[in-house]
Amino acid sequence: MSQDSEFLWYIPNQVVAGHRGDEVVADHNSLATLSAQAKAIEANGWKGALIGTGWGRPDTFTVGAALAARTDTFEPLIAARPGYWEPAQLATAVATLDQLSEGRVRLNIVSGKDDLAAYGDKEGDQAQRYARTKEFMQLLRRLWTEESVTYRGEYFQVTESTVVPRLPARGNRRHPRLYFGGASAAAEQVAATEADVQLFWGEPLADIAERISRLKKLSATSERALPPLEFGLRITTVVRDTSEQAWADAEAKLEAMASGAGGIWHDHRRVVAVGQQRLFDLQSRGDVLDDNLYTRPGKFGGGGAGTTWLVGSAEEVARSLRKYEALGVSHFILSDTPYLREIERQGQTLLPLMRK
User: FRET label pair with 318: which of 35, 202, 203, 356, CA 20 to 30 Å apart?
Assistant: First the structure.
């Protein structure tokens, strides 16, 4: 593992139990259960966790704040949407939590489709959606790094706005990192100019290499005035003691998906975005790509990071992750279910191999 590579887990933040085959228990989304996961994350070598967002889920920022308060080193990667939040409100909330947690907050800006009308938001076409996102990210940075900000954008405006508490510099960190996803041309243009970390879902190595190359070129030819764009991978990792056991368990999960059991498996399938469609299209190229990238879950309801899985022993999955690392990926967000058990298993078997 390179010195700069970081490993985060995933906390689903779902009202309905059994997310992606997780154990179905009555208190699956209680503070005690989620805190147990967050504490296991920090005890087993993970930096923190991405917390899912979307209308119909508990409020992600509230969950992130609660878990930060219950832990010592856990870093919540809080997903947030323009439109659900106004920039100045989010900038203030993040600055407050970052100060209270002593610099542990990360932010994932999400622009995908949502039930906008339910919370009084509206959007136009894809170009408009990402133009709004670009303004949102620009204004967040200005509010965190400048005082008395006046901004007159097409979508957002503030007058003499100063966010308090002010964010102190922590080494090279001036403010929480902005993670961003999206595979369309409009999304990649926003990432190239405004994101700190571009997140990919589990595509084959050659596809990720091609996207990294294109994003670097876009960054070089855009008005980017930030440090170089970094890259991350969000993927399901089915890790077991042996390759045979991993594939047997993967097939058992697939059977549960095909039968409709196992809770929510397709929370990204309501609207198929460009990035999700890229994952579905991989099925036509084979059930297993590269060494152990399993594409069949997408046939049975897998969505988002549940569409493709890396399957194998800890050594095999580590070998695959190192190949992504060699391409320039330095942020990894992994998961498998049951979440708590896999936090511990992969923290104790996979992460030590990545640190060799």
Answer: 35
267 pLDDT more than 60? no
Which residue bears the tokens 């097409």? 154
Where b means 16+ CB within 10 Å and e means fewer, 84-116 reads bbebbebbbbbbebbeebeebbbbbbbbbebee
For residues 71 and 35, the answer to whether their CB atoms sit within 8 Å is: yes
Entry pTM: 0.94
Pairing of strands 293-294, 309-313: antiparallel
Q: How many other C-beta atoms can be found within 10 angstroms of the C-beta atom of residue 215? A: 20
Residues 217, 295: Cα–Cα separation, whole Å: 29
Q: How far apart are CA 161 and CA 123, in angstroms?
A: 25
pLDDT in tens, 66-104: 999 999 999 999 999 999 999 999 999 999 999 999 999
**DSSP letter string, 113-130:** ---GGGGT----SHHHHH
| C-alpha distances in Å from residue 178, one per residue of 130, 138, 191, 226, 237 | 15, 11, 10, 12, 24
Q: Would you call 247 helix, strand, or coil by DSSP?
A: helix
CA distance 167 to 299: 46
Q: Which of 249, 268, 232 is closest to 337 using CA atoms?
A: 249
* pLDDT of res. 261: 54
Contact (CB, 8 A) for 201 and 232? no
